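In line with agreed milestones, work has continued on tokenised descriptions of protein folds. One protein thus recorded appears below exactly as we store it:

>
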Amino acid sequence: MALFVFGAGATRGCSFVDPRKFACLPPLDRDFFTQLQRISNPKHRDLVRDVMDDVVQLFGYNFDVTMETVFTTLEHSIRMLKTTGTHWDFSQEELKAKRDRLEQAIAAVLEESLTENVGGASSLTAKNCDHHATFVWQRLKEEDVIVTFNYDCLLDFSLKNHGTGKWNARYGYGFNLGKWGKRLDGHQFWQPKKPASEGDTVRLFKLHGSLHFDITGPEKSSHVHLKQRPYTKQAGTRLRFSIIPPEWMKQFDRGAFGTLWAKASTAIHQARHIVLIGYSLPATDLHSTALFRTSVRRERLNSVVVVNPDRETRRRTRSVLQRGLNPATKVLSFDSLPEFLAVDRSVWEV
């Protein structure tokens, strides 16, 4: 069994990404606000303006902050006002409204960058990535596990379109289906033509949530609805989705997400091959780093593959997975997903 870990870099490196044709790119944490300001769809105009005003109010003009920094600032400011009972420049309600707008902005940027452009605006049709399709069709095997920290649905669409015999959307996400399986619906849309069996399906654990997850109800008996249109909302309405925002105090141990993190930990512990694609294991994401450090089994890994052009990221990845390495572990690096896909699986699956 191989474990594949996808990060934002895997989406940024999609085959359809070309700033010469369409300026708004799938965002990275460090350039999120740049991509937000490139949205051309008029229905998002007010949201973009309001979010940029929010960031200026918090950090001043000519700011240089990441999306995680803004979310974390809002989170701690809300908690501080709740503790002190003060509200000098902002009330708790105002800060919560800013946080809500920023979450909606994530969906707006992903809609703009990941759906087909029609008449200068985003559409209902999701773009297809040739690299993701090749990965699912030619490299992914039954019973492999994918862990992703991305909110987008590129992998979900690729599994639906190319995962015949490998993917079953009812069982593959790892949710607790509950008695009679009534805690999940909407999975039919995400099924391939011929779904895999429950025991053979690829597992896709979306640890930070997804724009097509709509999770409701009590934590111990959460209901999950898988939406057909993950990115698109009507003008003036609020898009419903369930994600864990990029902030330091992530609520990853509650409800449906607690189940996914536990299953991901087991998968990491059982894995003999770990492939990280466009994921940098950022030092600020203490929860994800702790997941890998504590879950990897001592000296168990046969191979570690890092698909990332950044040398420092490669070094940090080896450090986090150090406990799983042994003298015979094969460590390989590739600059991009196409470069990784150009080699046969037998090259690293030793």
Q: What stands out?
A: The longest strand covers residues 2-6. The chain has a mean pLDDT of 92. Residues 29-114 form one domain. The two ends are 12 Å apart (CA to CA).
